[in-house]
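User: Please fill in residues for this 167-position structure.
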């Protein structure tokens, strides 16, 4: 992963680049006005971007619902895929959720998107069920995934990092 990737809050000035990534990533993209409302009007929404200089390399969003976070979306620009950007976004989402009092996180992912499922499993997400016909473009099922103990995952990750760093 490029060391110059910085995670910051999504602001309206990011939306043109976010929309380009959205359209390249999803067959049924959210609209720009939806993102605008999420970042300016929804008090439960947290949206972030991974910045490479002035370029949006990826973005992610979540809702905080009581003591749970729900990932609404995550996408990486085609030129930045397989460079650790999604991992950095996920890590930030987990840490910020825990700071805000959520110790569980959920998401839906296309049943056919095995690469994304594998990524989420690296963060201790596991399949918990299906939403039949969830995706409107092709009636594909969504796999519901849960991460049920963010604090334990992050603690284990820190201990592993300490071991690898000789501490």
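Assistant: Residues filled in for all 167 positions:
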């Amino acid at each position: 992963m490029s060391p110059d990737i910085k995670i910051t809050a999504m602001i309206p000035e990011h939306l043109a680049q976010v929309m380009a990534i959205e359209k390249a990533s999803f067959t049924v993209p959210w609209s720009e006005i939806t993102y605008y409302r999420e970042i300016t009007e929804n008090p439960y929404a947290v949206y972030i971007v991974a910045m490479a200089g002035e370029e949006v390399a990826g973005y992610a969003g979540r809702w905080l619902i009581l003591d749970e976070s729900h990932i609404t979306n995550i996408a990486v620009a085609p030129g930045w895929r397989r460079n650790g950007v999604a991992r950095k976004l996920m890590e930030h989402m987990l840490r910020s959720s825990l700071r805000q009092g959520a110790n569980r996180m959920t998401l839906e992912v296309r049943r056919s998107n095995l690469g994304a499922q594998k990524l989420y499993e690296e963060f201790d997400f596991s399949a918990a069920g299906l939403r039949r016909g969830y995706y409107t473009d092709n009636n594909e099922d969504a796999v519901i995934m849960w991460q049920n103990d963010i604090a334990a995952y992050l603690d284990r990750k820190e201990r592993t990092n300490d071991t690898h760093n000789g501490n």
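For context: The chain is about 35% helix and 30% strand.
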